[in-house]
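Lay summary

Proteins are chains of building blocks that fold into shapes. Our project writes down both the chain and a compact code for its shape. Here are two examples, one after the other.
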Amino acid sequence: MSNFAIVVHGGAGTITPDLYTAEIEKGIRDTLYEAVEAGYYLLGDGEAAVNVVSHVVMVLENSPFFNAGKGAVFTNDGTHELEAAIMNGADLNAGAACGVKNVRNPVVLARKIMEKSGHVYLHGKGAEEFGRLYHVAFEPDEYFFDQFRYDEWRKIKASNTYRLDHSKDNAKKFGTVGAVALDKNGNVAAATSTGGMTNKKYGRIGDSSIIGAGTYANNATCAVSCTGHGEPFLRAVSAYDISCLMEYKGLSLEEASNYLIHEKMKQTHLQGEGGLIAIDTTGNISIAFNTVGMYRGYRRSGEKEHIALYKPNEMPA
């Protein structure tokens, strides 16, 4: 049987057991499990990696537990601005959208942009117009409403501060979702989706939808999806940096991931908090984060699934 694997994340940050009720934790774990299993069985059936990451990110976008799609946080003006990207390692084809509103599954819009637009990146109303042209699903504002996120926004909407995701007692969580996959034909792909920052202003765009910063895939090296404080990840061109460290310096996937997250991101001029998931074309998987926890899961061909939320040693390497 050819090697194949799926890896997912649902955000990183100050994620500790005391932040959640048992019911919420179960919901988070169940959704991660659903996403991993959906991806695994699609890959087992011979589905292409790019199709799998698109489907898996849709599963996460449809859940209120993550800051993407249905669970997106509120901007300063009380709306939701969504962004997503997808990249196919087989041909370096990519699509991305940012600053869009009411799109049920931003990853679907990113996929349509990749396949139909002749462009890579579309923004705002233009991206929405393009999505309607290709029958991308839209939802009313009520679909995206979450009382907890609304209450968090109301607390700070009159200030100049923002929060990186919904928080409790000043805990920080970066709720971006993402997936990377290796299919039976040896192709890799990556997809990432986010609702950005609570109370963000001025049309701020994070790293998630920017090819090379939050999302990257190349059959010559690996596929990467990042989550964290977007500005440092943008400045470090983080996802592409993993690929470059492998291609030009000969580092392994694990070495490159650990260097970026645990050394480069810790440098004084970056101070980057977050993590990433990555996979190479031989089926090696890397899950690296410098925060207390990270929602994550994976399953390789012939193995059982692994789901974890908290400290690094909760899940086998």
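And here is the second example, written the same way.
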Amino acid sequence: MFPLFPQCECKLKQKGSLPPKYALEMLTIYAWEKGSRAQDFDLPEGFRTVLELVIQYQHLCIFWLVNYSLNDESRVLRNFLLDQMKRTRPVILDPADPTGDVGGGDSWCWHLLAKEATECLSSLCFRDKLGCPIQPWKVPTESSF
């Protein structure tokens, strides 16, 4: 499942409708933006951070205010975005289109992915050369305004 880490033997054991890859890509970008921003970041730290976020899927409310604003004069967009953020977690709003919640709430089996992510964290790929656990970046599960 994780070709960059051959020592990780994690494979999804149960079948279910998993979140789309785009949701995980957005989660990865969010983790990098909030946790590292380094051009030469440590891949195991970043990967561990994303897995930790997946495990906390029930608390995820992630959005970007790069291409849209909450200062909409008509308040239509603002009210819509605030309603989106009240939806069942995980909420991951597409940065290009805030009407698209790629987190999907209950639409996908995040619980299966979270279970597998938890099991993967015990893999050797999350240990340093001395055998100590690699620490994730400190990343909030919710975006802020």
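What can we say about the second shape? The longest strand covers residues 61-62.
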